Amino acid sequence: MSEASERADLGEGVVAGVLEAVAAPAVVCDLAGVVRACNDAFETRTAEDRTVEGRTLDGLVEWAEKNPVTGVLDGDDETTAPARLIDDGRRYGVTARPLTGDGLVGAVVVFDDEPEGDWPVYRAALDAAPDTVYVVDTDYRFRAVSERFEERAKIPRAELVGERMERLADYGLVSEETVTEGREALDALFDGEKAEVQLVSEGVIEAGRITETRLAPVTHDGEVVGAVADVRDVTERERSVEARQSSEQRLRTILDTMPVAMLVLDGDGRVDHVQGLDFEHVHCDRSDLVGERIDAFAGQYGGLVDGCRRALDGAANSATVTLDERTYEAVFEPVRENGEVTGTIAAAVDVTDRERRERELATTNERLDLALENTEAGVHEWEIGQDRVYWHETTSRLFGLDPETNYRSRSAFVDQVHPDDRERVQWAVEDAIETDGEVRVEYRVNDPGEEPRWLVSEGEIVYDDDGEPDRLVGTVRDITERKQRERELAEREQRLRAVIESSADPIAMQDTDGHYRVVNEAMVETTGCPRSHLRGATPTDVFQADTASRLERHRRDVLSTDSARVARERIPEDGDRRERTVQLTVAPYHGPDGVQGTVTIARDITELERQRDELETLTAIQELVQKGIRGVTSATTREEIKRTVCDRLASSTFYEGAWIGYRDGTTKQISPDYAAGGICDYLDGISIRSDTSDYGQGPAGRAYRTGEVQVVDDIREDPTVEPWRADALEYGLESVAVVPLTHGSTTHGILVLYTDRPDTFSDRELDGFETLGTAVGSALGAAQHRRLLESDRVLELSYETETQSDPFIRASNEHSCRLVFEKAVHAADDLVITYLTVEDADPEVGGEVARSFDLIESVRRLDGDDGPHYELQWTDSLFHVVADAGARGTNVVVEDGVGTLNVEAPGDIDVRRVTELLQRRFPELDLVTKRERESTDTPWWHVHGDIGACLTDRQRDVLQAAYYSGYYEWPRKTDAETLADSLDIATSTLLQHLRKGHNRVLEATFDS
Q1: Which value, to the nearest 10 degrees, does the dihedral of the CA atoms of residues 356, 357, 359, 360 take?
Q2: Nearest 5°: CA angle at 53, between 48 and 59?
Q3: Which of 904, 1000, 995, 984 is nearest to 952 (CA)?
Q4: Nearest alpha carbon to residue 600 among 643, 558, 646
Q5: In whole angstroms, what is the distance from residue 452 CA to residue 446 CA?
Q6: In which element (H, E) is residue 677 found?
């Protein structure tokens, strides 16, 4: 054989090997377009009985445009064209490339992608392959590498050709394990053990991609001289296979675990596959069924056989079949291929237990209907996982739905629930399924009524044999009335809690074991313990042992007798230094099961007891004061009044001593006039003044100046008693009260009381003393007035003023008249009634001035022509002051711009004091005359020692007012109603005073 022929033979062997390795259909043509070689992929696309080699390509291919081989033979590097293989009818994109040796020897035609290159015969065939292709010899060295390999691996062919396969591991394309696996596969080819090897690897060409390598031997002269490798990317295929296998596995798992029996028959009616049947019930083994014709079971399982036959005849059907006392619901479906029935599939579900349950349920429903016939409860059952819920007719009525409908969807139930409650209801059901299997939920339903209706659903989960939730069975009841009662109860409880919390008294509820369960804020504040600490604690945990023991004894007594009790306890406070008195009210409280515990209300009565003690003391003092007042009213002389008051006060257990003093107008000195108790020696050594000097800053001086009661609660601390402190403390005096003795605007003296304790005088006690001071002042004034009437010598005093601010003085100047005010009478509310006579002018002059004068309360015109003309009620007048000073104003005369006040006073009266009192109120008055005379006013009744024995002061005022106002004249100038209005008393009271006054005057007259 020549060298040329050897090269041609080698080339033909390489071409054959390359074509075999190329996956796409490919042929090699000579210059005449005759096929010289083809690969298996091309050969399988032609008829089996037709030879490819030696035939023209045009006889095998139907070209759509032109034959691309013609272009290559005409000198083109590559030509493509669409075409169709005549034998298989498929269309391809055909690519033709020149095949060269010593020159152009033919063309390589590939029916797939568009290869390119200019190899020699075998190299051109290698590059024409659409896949990644390489050739190795028996030393595992690369002999040729396709351009596609170079492109995808990113390794130049020049670097790889001549290198061993291990080089791929160096480039990081494959692992060493993959290289070893490839060499072992090549060894199998080289040794002739295998004609072809396929390897699936990851990362041979690209990282993360899966490739399939097909290895085919290259032979020369009958010997294997190498191998061609076709590397294809099969990533998507492999992953698709994995996904399909995973899906098949899941499907198989589902089929194996589903409670479904399956039977697969082929077209001849033989059992091809069976699963899910309980072979113990059908009394055979799986092997007894597989391969057997279904007709063999017609006698025993006729329903199953009939269904399969109809399916094999092409009719899908369903039936209920019985296999050895087990009931199945079966579906029979024909299997078709190209329109022909090639078999059938039977799927059957064992419904034996379900039918049994349905029968039981029907029986139960009948019983339930009887049980619920006269109740308001409904029943429902939900098959978990199914959108179907059984509703008893009562259930439907409760929801306001048609009772004839027994099954509804879950959404139908949810739609009936109030929107605000839906999420809570759904959560309750889901929680029951996931936890303990029990559900109880209360909710509102959509109702057009004003008040929402409330339902309660109660139920539990029923589990299947595998312990999985199967059904939710429950009842539903209308609880609207109960909810209403609960709301009312909650409102009452809320009000009760509000009352408990608002109570200033500590309140606590204990259970039968003594643990605090409810405490109010007052309890928290009283104990000083946090509320969280009190709840669950016992009295032993909160109070001292002795206190806790007493509290526990009360609680047990209440529980044992089941009746309330009230007790008083003294509770230590501030580390036993103080105690508080507490009134405990302990009562049992009851529940459905009897006594549940006790309720304790603790009221702090410490202050109440102190007030009670103080009230008892005050009552005694008030009684003492009242006795003093009664004694004063019965006394007739100033000395008797002073002695009565001081002796009564000093002889009581409340005061150390008492004295009454008066002020010397000349020296401003306040001196004791009468004293009682153990204070006489103390009084001998002290000096008290009524002015603002150091000795007038004490309580006595202040009381005299202000006319108000003064108190020193603690002589040791009060700085105003500094001049007398040492002496007072030496005699054991700790506090002092000074009461001014006033009548109207006149202060007749002061009453001074001492105690041997600080902080003794209460406000109520001082109020009583203020009343006593007024009573004593009035009595002293009355006694002085009686002294005036009884005196043998009378002082006549005249006071004048010319002030033009007085409207009556201005009127006397303007009208040249004379105004006379006389016959002063005391009326109610400390008013004084005088009678005005207007001389030398129209009486209306006096009336007009009187009505405009702000010190006159009322003006009443009298009917007398000669006078008096007017009755005047004064709120403040000269007659007030004169009476308070112990004298009597006879009249006031205003004439020629001068006002003159004429006064009668006892001969021994202190004129300076009278003048001082008048000028303190009316500073414009001046004393102008003072005369002393024998008393010529002899009473027209016989006096038996005391004028008070005949008339009271009030009776005398009423008789005098009646006389001066013309009540006794005929015709009367004043009637009883008018006179009563003037005195501000009722007419019946006026007549009563007049009758009693008349009786006493007549009695005195006739007795004399």
Answers
A1: 120
A2: 80
A3: 1000
A4: 558
A5: 7
A6: strand 669-677
Backbone φ, ψ for residue 227 (5° rounding):
-150, 145
Distances in Å between the Cα of 249 and the Cα atoms of 237, 239, 242, 245, 256 are 18, 15, 10, 6, 10
How far apart CA 943 and CA 1005 sit, in angstroms, is 9
In which element (H, E) is residue 327 found? strand 326-337
Q: How far apart are CA 341 and CA 363, in angstroms?
A: 45
Structure tokens at 694: 């150091």
The residues near 426 (Cβ < 8 Å, ≥ 6 apart) are: 414
Distance between start and end Cα atoms, the chain = 203
Between CA 351 and CA 356, with CA 355 as vertex, the angle to 5 degrees is: 115
Average pLDDT over residues 767-793: 71
Angle between helices 606-634 and 638-650 (to 10 degrees): 150
Q: Which residues of 499-522 are buried (b: 16+ CB within 10 A; e: fewer)?
A: ebeeeebbbbbbeeebbbebbbeb
| Contact (Cβ atoms closer than 8 angstroms) between residue 982 and residue 873 | yes
Residue type, 627: K
Do residues 469 and 433 make contact, with C-beta atoms less than 8 angstroms apart?
A: yes
Whole-angstrom distance, CA of residue 821 vs CA of residue 276: 138
How far apart CA 410 and CA 382 sit, in angstroms, is 8
- The contacts of residue 430 (CB under 8 Å, 6+ apart) are none
> Can the peptide bond before residue 672 be classed as cis, meaning omega within 30 degrees of 0?
no
- How many angstroms separate the CA atoms of 784 and 743, rounded? 12
Cα–Cα distance measured from residue 399 to residue 413, given in angstroms and rounded to the nearest whole number: 9
Does residue 866 sit in helix, strand or coil?
A: coil
Q: Which helix (H) or strand (E) holds 256?
A: helix 235-257
pLDDT exceeds 50 at position 59: yes
CA angle 108, 109, 110 (to 5 degrees): 120
Residue 259 burial (CB count, 10 A): 10
Using a pLDDT cut of 90, give the percent of the chain over it: 6
pLDDT-derived band at 613, boundaries 50, 70, 90: low
Q: Torsion-angle region of residue 569: left (phi > 0), alpha (psi -120 to 50) or beta?
A: beta
From CA 580, how far away is CA 960, in angstroms rounded?
62
- Strands of the sheet containing 710-712, edge to edge, are 688-689, 669-677, 657-663, 746-755, 735-743, 710-712
Angle (deg, nearest 10), helices 807-815 and 844-852: 150
DSSP string, 280-346: HHHTS-HHHHTTSBGGGGTTT-HHHHHHHHHHHTT--EEEEEEETTEEEEEEEEEEEETTEEEEEEE
Are the C-beta atoms of 111 and 42 separated by less than 8 Å? yes
* Tens digits of residue pLDDT in 313-347: 989 898 888 776 778 888 888 988 888 888 898 88
Q: 901: which residues sit within 8 A by CB, 6+ positions away?
A: 798, 799, 800, 878, 882, 889, 892, 918, 925
Structure tokens at 473: 């069975």
Measured distance CA(718)–CA(702) in Å, rounded = 14
722 touches 696 (CB < 8 A): no
**Which of 40-54, 405-419, 637-651, 864-878 is predicted with the least confidence, judged by mean pLDDT?**
40-54
Cα radius of gyration (the chain): 68
Strand order across the 898-906 sheet: 856-861, 870-874, 832-839, 818-826, 888-895, 898-906, 793-801, 926-934
